[in-house]
Write a structure and sequence with these properties.
Elements lengths: L2 E5 L4 H12 L3 E6 L14 E3 L5 H11 L3 E4 L6 H6 L1 H22 L3 E7 L22 H20 L2 E7 L1 E3 L17 H9 L6 E4 L11 E2 L1 E3 H16 L5 E5 L5 E2 H12 L5 E4 L8 E2 L4 H7 L8 H15 L2
Parallel strand pairs: 1-2, 1-4, 2-3, 4-5, 5-6, 6-11, 7-10, 8-13, 9-14
Antiparallel strand pairs: 9-12
This protein binds nicotinamide-adenine-dinucleotide.
């Protein structure tokens, strides 16, 4: 079986991509320093402990497994910590990505699928957001992801690897078979925090801003099931293997849900109350972020298969109960 080096494959999205790769007949080789990942989530192929900044270790792993491609998830992805300590985020997300690209070049790995983010768009002037919207991040995390995209595009033009930059909106849910799921510590994402509040694992859910120009005053975000994200990663890889050209693609559902709608859905799924506290807006939070999913549908095989918010919340709830309660 052909192998793929999956940096960050012990994390949330990366572990689901590994499962999808294994189901599709690839061998996912996880390369991860377990900074925010978990050893038990890397269960679909070999595990290589290591930091993406460690050139020798990374190259040794590539020499050992001879992957046809790299899927590059490893990153620091907390916006708050990127604002507080931008250089640490740039070291992992920019310098780390540079080391991955250099290793690929030196050892002749010809395809890359990269975890980018809707944070590259900053405050979009119009929604839904197409891939041609201006790229104008508003925080160091978004800049680090955009810098990664820029280096990848320039390396592709100069040395030939083909690539797909997948700009995720909000990954949500867990493996429907319950094998893997989200386990960020600390957890900052809305759905798991709302579930944690419902399960009394935290005192209450913080809602940042209740006075936005949205129907109920709270921010609207596009949630997409992590298993759909995973499937699209495999589709992106297979498209490159079949000669598809390098491209950036939004990964979202194409519809938005407000914070209050998410809380209502969490209460309906769990049958429990979510205690809330409404706090001031966070700087840099746009009111509405929703993807135009047309390019993903055209290039990566159809719309989301698990598009409903209830399904995302239900799979996440079952995972949280197994993992944390
Ligand atoms: N979760 C989302 O909604 C979302 C949205 C947009 C973009 N992204 C991007 O998707 C990717 C995966 O996000 P996630 O939510 O799965 O995060 P995660 O923290 O669960 O996974 C990141 C993984 O990378 C590993 N890692 C971090 N630094 C490393 C290093 N220097 N060397 C080796 N491994 C390292 C961590 O241990 C972890 O297993 C990230 O690049 C993130 O920026 C995520």
């Amino acid at each position: 079986m052909d192998s793929v080096l999956v940096t960050g494959g012990a994390g949330y999205v990366g572990s689901h991509a590994c499962k999808a790769l294994a189901v599709a007949g690839w061998t996912p080789v996880v390369y991860d320093n377990l900074d925010t990942g978990h050893r038990d989530l890397a269960r679909y192929g070999p595990f290589e402990p290591g930091d993406i900044g460690d050139r020798e270790r990374l190259e040794a792993a590539i020499r050992r497994h001879r992957p046809l491609a790299v899927m590059h998830f490893a990153a620091r992805s907390l916006i708050g910590s990127a604002v507080a300590d931008p250089l640490a985020t740039y070291r992992t997300n920019v310098a780390g990505t540079l080391t991955v690209l250099e290793a690929m070049r030196r050892l002749g790995v010809g395809m890359l699928v990269y975890s980018s983010s809707c944070a590259v768009y900053g405050h979009p002037a119009t929604v839904p957001i197409t891939e041609d919207a201006p790229l104008q991040p508003v925080n160091p995390y978004g800049w680090s992801k955009l810098a990664g995209e820029r280096m990848i595009a320039d390396a592709g033009a100069a040395y030939g690897p083909t690539w797909t930059a997948l700009r995720y909106f909000n990954a949500a849910g867990a493996d429907p078979e319950g094998e893997i799921g989200e386990d960020h510590r600390p957890e900052s994402h809305l759905i798991p925090r709302a579930l944690m509040a419902a399960a009394s694992l935290i005192d209450c859910l913080e809602v940042y801003g209740g006075d936005y120009a949205t129907p109920d005053g709270t921010c609207v975000r596009d949630y997409v099931h992590v298993s759909d994200l995973a499937r699209w990663h495999v589709a992106a890889l297979e498209r490159l293997r079949n000669g598809g050209g390098s491209v950036a693609v939004n990964l979202g559902s194409g519809r938005g849900w407000s914070v209050r709608e998410v809380v209502g859905a969490v209460e309906a799924v769990t049958g429990r109350t979510v205690p809330l506290v409404t706090l001031p807006r966070r700087p840099g939070d746009p009111p509405v972020l929703v993807a135009d999913p047309a390019r993903a549908a055209a290039l990566l095989g159809g719309p989301a298969r698990l598009p409903g918010l209830d399904r995302m919340i239900d799979t996440a709830w079952r995972w949280l109960q197994r993992r944390r309660v």
